[in-house]
Amino acid sequence: MRPFHTRAATTPTAAERVRSILAAAHSMSVVSDGRHAEVRRLDGAGAMGHFHLHAPFEDAGARTATRVPVRLELTDIAPTPVRDRLRARVTLTGLLAAPYDTEATESMCMEFGQAVLEDDQGRTYVTLHALEATELDPIATSEAGMLTHLVDEHSEIVPLLLRLVRPHPDSGMRRALPVAMDRYGLTLRLEYPRSHHDVRLPFKTPVTDIDQAGPQIHALLTTARRLSHIGTGQLLT
Question: Quick check: 139 pLDDT over 80?
Answer without folding.
Answer: yes
